[in-house]
Specification:
By secondary structure, the chain is mainly α. The chain has 17 helices and no strands.
């Protein structure tokens, strides 16, 4: 395909062949860098009306491949993916066109910035935040686009070095406004709260803007969390919960703990087999138990005045712990039954 990358017919046929005949990403991981290069070329340069299908196939294939790359692989190709996807976004903005290619480009950047600080920094270096604001203003009713952009910004906000670059009135006002969003279920509001929780976790001294005020943003964050239904089933896939669990140690800002605890209580509610063991393995259960003990001890000793945030945090923490403990109990029962069956089979 590389030798014929200018030939639109051959490129379209090649992408279609990859889509139909190959198991993506499994069949392509052995030469993923070459595949990424050619798909990026098609995605950027085969963008006219007569070849728009080639562009869509290329970015969709690229996205399927990127979603399964590990940390080192993302590091190897992440910068060029970010650069190319942002150029595609700029072109779409110039044309005032939000299509499947635009939405998939943002989704690809969301995937490639996950647990990748270098790629998140590259996104900011290439003026990605300015493009976010332009896209949101130009295409205010494209819910999939907004969800993909907020997912990406959630990854960026997890990187401490990036957060200070998000600390502008324009950006924080936008995130704060999105806390009240009820489009796309809770996802936009949830991701906005995640971004602001990470920014607030650096402490009052890191909140270098006067408007909006940190206390005002935290009040709106609490209001948003209180509005969400804990039983909401989500289309979300965390490989690791370490960034969320890290917020549980932010004892000086209970609002950050509130968002993180809500997330864990919700995840362990609707997908027990995946997230209950993950929370325990990554230390989340221990932190939540410590938060519960702290709040109960403060109440018994009357050392702190009661607060709605602490009361909500206590309830969510207890729910998360109960979800995990009940899952563990069921797993133990299943293991006992399996061992009993094996024992009986061995006796026969």
């Amino acid at each position: 395909m590389v030798e014929h990358k200018e030939d639109t017919s051959l490129m379209g046929g090649g992408c279609l062949l990859l889509w139909i005949r190959f198991q993506v990403p499994q069949d392509l991981l052995c030469l993923y860098e070459r595949v990424v290069d050619i798909l990026l070329y098609i995605g950027e340069h085969h963008s006219g009306e007569d070849v728009s299908y080639n562009q869509l196939l290329a970015v969709c294939l690229l996205n399927k491949l990127v979603c399964h790359l590990d940390g080192e692989q993302k590091k190897a190709v992440g910068i060029k993916i970010i650069d190319t996807m942002l150029r595609i976004v700029r072109n779409k903005l110039d044309w005032k066109l939000c299509d499947d290619v635009m939405e998939t480009a943002w989704y690809g950047m969301w995937s490639v910035t996950e647990e990748s600080p270098a790629n998140s920094e590259r996104f900011l270096d290439q003026h990605g935040m300015e493009l976010f604001l332009q896209c949101k203003e130009t295409f205010p009713n494209r819910l999939d686009l907004l969800r993909n952009m907020m997912g990406l910004l959630g990854n960026v906000a997890e990187v401490k070095e990036c957060r200070k670059r998000l600390m502008t009135s324009a950006f924080v006002e936008e995130f704060s406004f999105l806390l009240d969003s009820q489009t796309d279920g809770i996802e936009v509001s949830y991701n906005a709260a995640g971004v602001l929780s990470h920014m607030a976790s650096d402490g009052p001294e890191a909140w270098t803007i006067t408007c909006p005020a940190r206390d005002h943003v935290l009040e709106r964050l609490v209001r948003a969390v209180n509005r969400w239904d804990i039983n909401t089933k989500r289309n979300i896939n965390y490989r690791s919960l370490c960034p969320i669990i890290g917020l549980l140690s932010v004892t000086e800002t209970r609002e950050c703990q509130l968002w993180a605890t809500w997330a864990i209580a919700n995840l362990t509610e609707f997908d027990e087999p995946k997230y209950c063991p993950l929370v325990e393995q990554e230390g989340g259960l221990k932190y939540i138990k410590e938060i519960i003990e702290e709040i109960i001890s403060e109440g018994l000793a009357n050392t702190c005045k009661p607060s709605d945030v602490k009361e909500k945090l206590l309830g969510l923490g207890q729910r998360a712990v109960n979800n995990i403990e009940m899952w563990k109990k069921r797993q133990d029962q299943l293991n006992d039954e399996e061992n009993l069956i094996l024992l009986l089979e061995g006796q026969n």
